[in-house]
Amino acid sequence: MIYAFQLGREPLLSVMELDAACRARGIISTLTVLNESVALVEAEDMPNNIIDMLGGSIKFGRLIEIIDSAQFMDDALSILSAETFLQGAFSDEESVAFAFSAFGDVPSGFHKRLKPLAISWKKFLKSRFRHVRFVESKDETTSSVTVSRNKLLRGCDLWIVFSNEQVYTIKTLDVQDYRSFSDRDFGRPRRNAKNGMLPPKLARIMVNLSGANPSSVLHDPFVGSGTILQEAGLLGIQNLIGTDINSQNVSDAHDNLEWLQERTDKRWTARVAQADIQKLTPSAYSDVTHVVAEIDLGDPLTKKATAREVLNRITEAEQLTQALFAYATSLPRCASIVVALPFWPQNDGKIGRVPYTIPAGFTQLKDEQYAKAFPRELSPRGGFDYIRPDQFVGREIMVINKSK
């Protein structure tokens, strides 16, 4: 079976997370990137709730049919109206809704043809279903919000993906639960915007990149408000550790984890305590198998920093990074370190980054297979850059695994 994933705003991170999540769950698969928006996964079996395990993918779908691009452009309506296609696109519902999204190397003028195509297809579908509704999106692609609100999972949210002179037609099976991510970001009882809050989606991506599974012991030594531990718990990791030098952060993380556990059927044990990363010893948490953390971003910025300002921030971040690596590599069972290092676009056009050295016995994950499709996301050092357009500090995601 061939499945499809619509990638998020950072497609390289999304693909890397998808690959890591499949491996961690024993899903034997072949992953193919069609373009910056869509990746295909060929697998014998795929969990129905796979989209709930991911932070970087927006939609999850199933391939219906691959068609020659020229043939599709010549007679799309006949192709969509064929019996075999309809069996793959719709279930036995009496009333259906459908929507179109076009991705990839879309031919010039095709987006203008989508609505007339939809109207013609709707006329045809009325001969098969009691009620038919076309959901027109304001954007070129149908969002997960639109899919959910219009109950398109009971009908057909159709992807039309142009790639290498072929058209891949894909039906959405599920969408990312945007409400739960938003609730964990903005609805939790303890939030501190001054600490540069890690987005829950990115925290989930980082946990998946670590390769941690339910039997792992995951430690965040800069626990902050507990975002990484929250996402790890929801992914089924049952043994969580969070430490922080700041007592208020420890209290915030504890409250947020309690708040979340009251709202989910997932169960975990969380050890949250005040501790200085520079004084942590392996004997304190010798059972840790995965370390996932974000280095402090520093005080919020209202504009691009000067080179001098960035240098001061780099010095502080470098000390914390060195302490993190020293602690993690001293742990006898630690298999993976995933860390978000801050970087700063400067007002002179340069970018300030935190220096680091890969610890002995560990190897940095540097993807070459997928990075060719998304060169803009790859940092000069092989990490994965994450920054929003309106931000003055970004995050460089580093994945470091114990050498085999």
Structure described in brief:
This protein is α/β, with parallel strands linked by helices.
What would the keywords be for this entry?
404 residues, alpha/beta, VC0802-like, Rossmann fold, nine-stranded mixed beta sheet, eight-stranded mixed beta sheet, 30% helix, 27% strand
SS strand fraction:
25-35%
Order of helices and strands: EHEEEHHEHEHEEHHEHEHEEHEEEEE
Decide which structural class fits the backbone. alpha/beta
Major sheet attributes: 9 strands, mixed
Report on the structure:
With 404 residues, the protein is an alpha/beta fold. It has two domains: 2-176, VC0802-like; 191-402, Vaccinia Virus protein VP39 (Rossmann fold, 3-Layer(aba) Sandwich), CATH 3.40.50. It is 30% helix and 27% strand. The chain is built from ten helices and 17 strands. The strands form two sheets. Strands 9, 10, 11, 12, 13, 14, 15, 16 and 17 form a nine-stranded mixed β-sheet that branches. Strand 2 (29-33) and strand 3 form a beta hairpin. Helix 1 (11-24) crosses helix 7, helix 2 runs parallel beside helix 4 (110-125) and helix 7 (200-210) crosses helix 8. The longest helix has 24 residues, at 307-330. The chain is elongated and about 70 Å long. The model has no long low-confidence stretch (mean pLDDT 93).
